[in-house]
Amino acid sequence: MNKYLLSIFAFIGFATAAPVTLPQDISFTDGATSWTWDNVAVSGGGLTVEDGEFKGLSDAYDSHAYLSVDGVMYSPSVNADLSDISVNSTVIGKLLTTDTVVMSGLNVTRKILFFNTAKEQSAVARDITILQNPTNAPISIAVAWGGNLGSDGSTAVRGNSNGTSSFDVKDIWVITSDDSTNPSDPVLGHVAQGKSCVVNRPAGSVLLEDNAFHLFNLTIPAGDTLSVVNILQMSDTNANGISAASVIFGSLDGPTNAGIFADLTDEEKDQIVNFGFSDCKADYRALVTDALKKVKKQIALGKSGKAAVTATNLADAEAQKYGDEITLRTGKTEAVFLKASKASVSAVKAAAKAGKTNSSDFEALKTKAQRSLNTLLKKIVAE
User: Fold this and answer.
1) Cα–Cα distance for residue pair 166/285, rounded to 1 Å
2) What sign results for the dihedral spanned by CA atoms 321, 327, 332, 335?
C-alpha cells in the first residue's frame, strides 16, 4: 500500500478484514477490569447480544440490541467480519460488521464497535445502523432498536440525564439495574441521542419491565445514506454507571473526548441523525426565533374573543413543543421558557374571554405580549 495512504489510515479508523462465523464472545481486559459481550449472535430472528459480564457480575442482557425496520427484524447471515480497528496507530476495539440486508427498499448494514478500554470504569459499545437509499425517491421508515436487559422484574431506572426516574425521549442517557443498592447483574446504560444539535431524536423510548426499546421515524432522501447510533454500557455499580454516562454523554464534547466517534470520517459522522458535533448556537437561535414568531403570529390573529382564545391556546402548544426541544439541546429547563411565554399571552387570553378584543386595552396587551417575547428571545439566545 502507498505510504501516503498508510499515513491517512493511521489517523482515521482502519481495520483489515477478519471473517468470522457468529456467534462470537468478545472479551477484553483493561488493567484489573475484565468484561465480555457474550454470544453476539444471529438468534431469535435477528442480530443480538445474548449476554454480558462485567467485573464479576453476569447475566446482562437476555437478547438485546435487536433491530427492526417497519416491523421486520434485521436478520443477517452468520458470516460477519470482526476486526481490530485502529486510530492513530492504536487499536481501540473490535468492529463487528454484518451483512447488508435489503429492507423496505433500503440497504441496511450494522457495525458494532466494542471498545477495548474501560471508559470511566465502564464497558461501552457503539452500534451504528447504516441506511442507504439506492432509489431515486425518498423512503420513510420506522426503525426500532432494543430487547431484553436480563435484569428481570426488579429492573428500575437508577438515574438519568434529567435527574428523574423516567425512561423516555427527553433523556439523553438512562441507567437501569436490578437493585437500588447492590445489583447482582451488570448495571446498564442506555443512550439513543446526543446532547448536541441533531436531525432526529427518538420518536419513542420505553422501558417495559426489563425490556427497553427506542423508535425512530426517518426519511432517507433519494440516493442518500443516513445512520442511527445506539450505545451499550455496562458498569459494576449504579453510581459508576451514572458517573460514566454523565461524563461521556452528558455534554457536547463528552463523546468526542471519550473517543466514541474517533474512528469515523467526517462524512460518516455527518450521516448520523441522532448525534451531532456542533455547539447548536446558530440552530438554537433559529429555533427560538421561529418559535416566538409563531407564538406572536397566533396572538396577532386574535381579533375576536373566540379566535383569540384559540390562538393563544395554539401559542401555548407551540411553547410546549419548542420548550421541550430547547431543554434537550441546551439543558435549560423548559419551565423557564413556558412560564415566560404563557405569562406574555395570558393577559391577551383573559381580555379575549372578557370580550375586550375591540378595545385599545386589548391592542396594548398584544403589544406588551409581543415585546415580552422579543425580550425573552434576546435573553435565551444570549445565555
Assistant:
1) 28
2) positive
Nearest-angstrom CA–CA distance, 33 and 115: 13
Q: What angle do CA 172, 328, 200 make, to 5 degrees?
A: 80
DSSP secondary structure code for residue 353 in this structure: H
Cell of 176: 437501569
Instruction: Give me the pLDDT at residue 167, please.
Output: 95
Q: What sign does the CA torsion over 148, 154, 160, 166 have?
A: positive
Q: How far apart are CA 202 and CA 134, in angstroms?
A: 24
Question: 170-183 b/e with 16+ CB inside 10 Å = b?
Answer: bbbbbbbbbeeeeb
Grouping H, G, I as helix, E, B as strand and the rest as coil, residue 88 is: coil
Q: Which domains does the chain carry?
A: 3-270 (2.70.98), 281-382 (1.20.120)
- Report d(CA 191, CA 75) in Å as an integer: 23
Q: Tell me how many helices (H) and strands (E) the chain has.
A: 8, 20
Q: What is the reported pTM?
A: 0.76
Max avg pLDDT among 10-24, 185-199, 362-376: 185-199
**Per-residue CA distances from 74 to 68, 108, 143, 171 (Å):** 5, 8, 10, 26
Q: Is residue 102 packed enough to be buried (19+ CB in 10 Å), middle (13-18) or exposed (0-12)?
A: exposed
d(CA 176, CA 212): 10
pLDDT in tens, 329-366: 444 444 454 455 555 555 555 555 555 555 566 566 66
285: Cβ–Cβ under 8 A, 6 or more apart, which residues?
A: 381
